[in-house]
Amino acid sequence: xxxxxxxxTVQLFKKKEKLKELYTPWGENIDEEHILEEYxxxxxxxxxxxxxxxxxxxxxxxxxxLPNEYDGEILVPFSPESILSKVKRQLQPHEYLWYRKEFxxxxxxxxxxxxxxxxxxxxCDVFMNNERIYHHIGGYLPFxxxxxxxxxxxxxxxxxxxxxxDKSYHAKGKxxxxxxxxxxxxxxxxxxxxxxxxxxxxxxxxxxxxxxxDQDSIKIRINTNASIHTPITFQxxxxxxxxxxLAYENVIPVMHKVSWTPDYPYLYHLxxxxxxxxxxxxxxxxCFTIEKDEQNIPRICLNxxxxxxxxxxxxxxxxxxxxxxxxxxxxxNDIQQMKDLGFNxxxxxxxxxxxxxxxxxxxxxxxxxxDMINGGEAYHTWYVTYMPTLFKQTQGFSDKLSYLLSRxxxxxxxxxxxECLDTIDALSYFPSIACWxxxxxxxxxxxxxxxxxxLREKDSTRLIDSSSGWFDQGCGDFKSEHHYFDEPVxxxxxxxxxxxxxxxxxxxxxxxxxxxxxxxxxTYENAKDLQEAFKNYKDNIIKPLISKGLCxxxxxxxxDIEEEINGILTYDRKVNKFK
Length: 579
Prior knowledge:
16% of the residues lie in helices and 32% in strands. The chain is of the alpha/beta class. A hairpin with a 4-residue loop joins strand 15 and strand 16 (217-224). The two termini are 29 Å apart.
């Protein structure tokens, strides 16, 4: 145990430092009339859509009444706390944030207009032409509204947002009103694309494609807006169309199977026709399993072949847009830079991305471990961070200590459970996702055994990391540990062994940091020393453990974030410290 470095991470009575404005290359050249215009749902594409991203009116208020006037303009979908939003103001728990957008439509007979929100943090009410039509809780998941019956030729769309941030039990990731260390600027409001599309009276709401790798087929579950019994046609690539009666689960053979791998991320295209509705989907033939090797050691397997998850932790923050990248190119750049460095896995930590990010991972060949978004009451840092870091024997403590693990509110427990299921519904389209991470370092942890079973029942095609870091309850597919100040040792366990966090090496690059303070786990003065330290760790610690059972290792982290400057990339994405 490197006690000196561990003690440095303890932050008591620390003043909050104002962030300097840093722009990414894409934020510097942003076009306010063309913001994230690509089709927001690439896994289920139609050709008729209209983006509502761009300038909206906004107002902050202390009451829930529609404002008489607005404060100015905000650039949607950037949160008001971000510099790209043009607002740069924190929404407080006692306040309301109002959005207003006017738009004209040409009404289409026998069609429905579906309004889509990628994500709104944290609680919102949607008004169309002065009528309250929808209420949504949850800051990370998409939702849609059929607004057909409220439409006029000229329309006024209003969204009212509240965000209690880390002052409630709701999902919050690593947002804090008082940011610092490994916790970052809390943000609020609309932070993913807003858009609408016309659909037929009978239309497909969701399409879930489940590859059956061993049977050379796919199972397709289609959710429609009305109960119907009608033929449906499927066409994979240029193969002959297949027509079947719509069922709970339609099964389609896949001819001449091509496997998806990080080196050859082959995607099939699937056209689906239901009466007058057509969508273009995609899928991959792959499977993730745990299988034992010749030495009876459990291994992570892709398509029944062992694969080592050489990964990087990614929290998805950008210096100018916070949760929201300025463009598609910004997302692609992060993934490609990690691919170029030899990583094959990204652990998406404490955040759910837009569908387009997962789409890019799918077609670029990047495996994804996806965290569920942690919530719960205020965390007892001494219990969930300092104690298990310094005293390894405490890492196996029970998850029944609801107060110490910040999970006393029953409504909050029910909300987390439902959001786990909704997360799988929202993301199970994407073949790059290999694993669901249920809890991280005890944050809001509870009922780990039961919830692991719940996730397994919901999605049996992916692996589950039930307790990343510590407070392991002996369930899930992994013995999953974090090691920053000591060296990992492969334990005696029937599950696969995963080093789900390590590294955190600090290199401060002048003119590319947003604060003077720095947070991380070991400091280096130049890029050469940093690179050598990473190489030494990989060669001398990780590689020898692979033969003994280590199945994956996730380096912290992809980019600097505010005080935490242990990224491979600087916060503004302008410097790659590993090159």
